[in-house]
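Example record

The entry below shows one chain as it appears in the dataset: sequence first, then structure tokens.
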Amino acid sequence: MSSTSPAVGRALDVLLYLASRPGPVHGSALIRDLGVPRSSAYHLLDVLVERGFVVHLPDQRAYALGVSAFEVGSAYLRHEPLEHIARPILKKLVASVNETAHLGILYGAESVYLLKEQPQVVRVPVTLVTDVGVRLPAHLTANGRSILAHLSAAQVRALFPSPASFISRTGRGPGSLNELRRLLQDERAQGWAEEVGLITDVVKRHEQDLTGVDCYVCGPPPMVEAAMAVLTTLGAHEKHIYYDKFTTTGSS
């Protein structure tokens, strides 16, 4: 509680308390848990109800968060504070390692990418499926598993309650809760998560239908040829596949 403005501090304590409860709370329970004098507590609640931050439910003799609290939370999301805070950190990381970096969050059982920063000078432009706004199954991505690894066992189980929760793209990746838990334990122990495999495996894992899609491939000739074969299998037409085969000096 703020020592210079106790009323404001108590009002915020009330809001944070209600936000931490799974449902409406009786006034007596709020007074008991917060240790606020009865008269002060009901005065605060009356003001918060008047301003729409709290709603009174007479039939239950209880209180819950009101629409004004929702509006404040929605404004927080509109202001994109996470992106603003993370962008300088990503830029510093990219400058240090000269590699592309992402900011991703967990949205249900999916990984959502909010930011992508690339080096200012790169020999070859990097195009990734993990672009801003893209959603991918969290258990199949390094970004998603790095977040899942820091959740409790109960939280992971809630996100993946049944075998049907484990989407499979290529037959690779965890297919059950036990497999996911073992993988998360290993990645938590090593300090990072990773996606290992050929680029063709990654394409097949993240894409299902490339009909009408323009595709760009660059790299050593064998890799380009293998990638083109996969792209056509997924529906890409040859005239929509643009490629650049890297060769050593003097090679044809």
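Notes for this example: The mean pLDDT is 82. The radius of gyration is 26 Å.
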